[in-house]
Write a structure and sequence with these properties.
It is a single chain. By secondary structure, this protein is mainly beta. It has one domain (4-416): Porin (Beta Barrel). Helices cover 5% and strands 55% of the residues. It has helices at 4-16, 41-45, 219-222, and strands at 20-36, 48-63, 66-81, 100-111, 115-122, 143-151, 157-168, 186-199, 204-212, 226-240, 243-256, 265-277, 280-289, 291-292, 302-303, 329-340, 349-359, 366-378, 383-394, 406-416. The strands form 2 sheets. It has an 18-stranded antiparallel barrel. A two-stranded antiparallel ribbon has the order 14-15. Strand 4 (100-111) and strand 5 (115-122) form a beta hairpin. Mean pLDDT is 94; it is low at 6-12 and 40-44. This is Alginate export domain-containing protein. Residues 26-157 form the Alginate export domain.
C-alpha cells in the first residue's frame, strides 16, 4: 500500500508533463515628435508628428522540456505625418516606425537547467546589446531566423552560440519600397554570434566573436559584413550599505569579411563607472568606434559598425550615430538618475539626465553635444508610462549625413500581460 507522500511523489512527473499555455500580449501607444534642421526651408518647417500603436499577440505551448511559441506583430500609424523610412514621405524627418503586420516570432525550444536550444524566428539579446539585440525601442522588433544553443552545464560558465541565416529588420513588410533599398524587410546571410561568459566574485568576463556575412545586392549593406573579436568585463561591488560601485570595460577588433568591398580594420573601446548612492545613480563613461583612414575601397576611410545592435541604447537618443561616420566616433558621457520606489500605489518612478559630447576618432572634429532626459513610471503590474526628450546640438558644419540640430520628444504607454 502506497503512502500519501509516495503517491504525491509518483504524481509529480505526470504533472510536469502536462501541456501548459502562456498567452502573450504586448501593446504600446506612442507619440513621437521630431524637429530637425534641414537644407531646404520646406524641410525646416515640416516637423514630424507620429502617433503609432503596436500590438504583439500570441502564446507559448509547453510540455516538459519542450515549448512552441508563436507571436504576431502589427503596427498602425494613427497620425503619419512623418518619414517612416519606407513610406516615401521624405520631406519629413525620419521616425523609423513603419506600418506593419508580420510574424514576429515562431520558435521551437528545448530547455533544461544545463541546456537551452532554440530553433526558428526568435529574439536575441546578447550582453548589453551593443553588438546583437532586438531593437526593442522601435515599434517593430528585430528578430533572427536562427539556431541558438546556450550551455550552462559547468558552474559559473555559459557558452552561447547562434547561427542566423536571416535578420528580420524593423522596416517591416514595406521594407525596400520607395527607393529605400538600404532598408529591406529582411537581410539574409551566414551570421555567427558566439559568447563565452565566466562569472567571478568581481564580475563577469566575456569573450565574444561576431561574424556577419550579409548576402544582399546592396553595396551599403555589404559593407556591414565583418568579423569582430573581443572581450568585456562587467560587475559591481558594494562599498557600504547604501553605496555600490559598478564598472564595465570592453575592447574589440573588427575587420572586413566575405563580400565586403572595403578592406579595413578598426578598434572598439568602452569604459564605464557607476556609483549608486541610496536613490541616486551617477554614471560616467567613454566609448570609441574607431576609424581606419587607410581603408581600401572607401574614400575618406571606414569606421567600426554594429549593424545588429540595439543602437538607440548607445550614443544618444537623438539617434545621430546609427551608422558610425567614416572618421569614427568618440562619445564622452555622464549622467544622473533618481529612483522613487513608490508614488501612491504606483512605482517605481525613475528620472534620468545624460550629457554626451561627440567627437571623431581622427581629424579632431567636434561633431556636437546632446542632452537626454527621461521619466518612467511603473503604474501597476502590467502598465507603465514614459516621457522622454533628446536635444542634439551640432557644432560647426555638418560632418556626416544627417548631422543637423535635432530635437525629439516621446510620450508612451506600455501594456504587457
Amino acid at each position: 500500500m502506497l503512502s500519501a507522500s509516495a503517491l504525491a511523489s509518483a504524481a509529480t512527473p505526470v504533472l510536469a508533463q502536462e501541456v501548459m499555455f502562456k498567452p502573450i500580449i504586448d501593446a504600446r501607444l506612442r507619440y513621437e515628435m521630431v524637429e530637425q534642421d534641414g537644407p531646404l526651408p520646406l524641410q525646416e518647417s515640416r516637423d514630424a508628428d507620429a502617433v503609432t500603436m503596436r500590438m504583439r499577440a500570441g502564446g507559448e505551448l509547453s510540455k516538459g522540456p519542450f515549448a512552441f511559441l508563436a507571436e504576431a506583430e502589427g503596427t498602425l500609424a494613427l497620425d503619419e505625418d512623418y518619414n517612416s523610412g519606407v513610406n516615401g514621405k521624405t520631406l519629413y524627418p525620419i521616425v523609423p516606425d513603419p506600418e506593419n503586420v508580420e510574424v514576429n516570432r515562431v520558435q521551437l525550444q528545448y530547455r533544461t537547467k544545463p541546456l537551452i536550444v532554440t530553433l526558428g524566428r526568435q529574439r536575441i539579446n546578447l550582453d548589453d546589446q551593443r553588438f546583437v539585440g532586438s531593437v526593442a525601442w522601435r515599434q517593430n522588433e528585430q528578430t533572427f531566423d536562427a539556431l541558438r544553443i546556450e550551455y550552462m552545464g559547468v558552474k559559473d560558465l555559459k557558452v552561447d552560440v547562434t547561427y542566423a541565416i536571416s535578420a528580420r529588420t524593423i522596416w517591416g513588410i514595406d521594407g525596400g519600397k520607395f527607393g529605400s533599398v538600404n532598408r529591406p524587410t529582411q537581410i539574409d546571410g551566414d551570421n555567427v554570434f558566439a559568447n563565452v561568459a565566466y562569472k567571478t566574485k568581481l564580475g563577469t568576463v566575456t569573450g565574444f566573436a561576431y561574424l556577419v556575412d550579409e548576402d544582399v545586392a546592396v553595396p551599403a549593406l555589404l559593407r556591414n559584413s565583418s568579423q569582430t573579436y573581443g572581450a568585456r568585463f562587467a560587475g559591481a561591488v558594494p562599498l557600504t550599505g547604501k553605496v555600490k560601485l559598478s564598472y564595465l570595460a570592453s575592447y574589440a577588433r573588427q575587420s572586413d569579411r566575405a563580400k565586403n568591398p572595403v578592406d579595413y580594420s578598426a578598434d572598439y573601446v568602452a569604459a564605464e563607472l557607476g556609483l549608486d548612492v541610496a536613490a541616486f545613480k551617477l554614471t560616467a563613461g567613454y566609448e570609441l568606434l574607431g576609424s581606419d583612414r587607410d581603408a581600401a575601397g572607401a574614400a575618406g576611410g571606414f569606421a567600426f559598425q554594429t549593424p545588429f545592435a540595439t543602437l538607440h541604447k548607445f550614443n544618444g537618443w537623438a539617434d545621430k550615430f546609427l551608422t558610425t561616420p567614416a572618421t569614427g566616433l568618440q562619445d564622452y558621457y555622464a549622467g544622473v538618475a533618481y529612483s522613487l520606489p513608490k508614488v501612491g500605489k504606483a512605482g517605481p518612478l525613475v528620472a534620468s539626465f545624460t550629457f554626451h559630447r561627440f567627437s571623431s576618432d581622427r581629424q579632431s572634429i567636434h561633431y556636437g553635444d546632446e542632452y537626454d532626459a527621461q521619466l518612467t513610471l511603473k503604474i501597476d503590474t502590467h502598465l507603465s508610462a514614459l516621457v522622454k526628450y533628446a536635444d542634439y546640438d551640432r557644432q560647426g558644419i555638418a560632418s556626416f549625413a544627417g548631422d543637423a540640430d535635432t530635437r525629439k520628444f516621446w510620450a508612451q504607454i506600455d501594456y504587457a500581460l
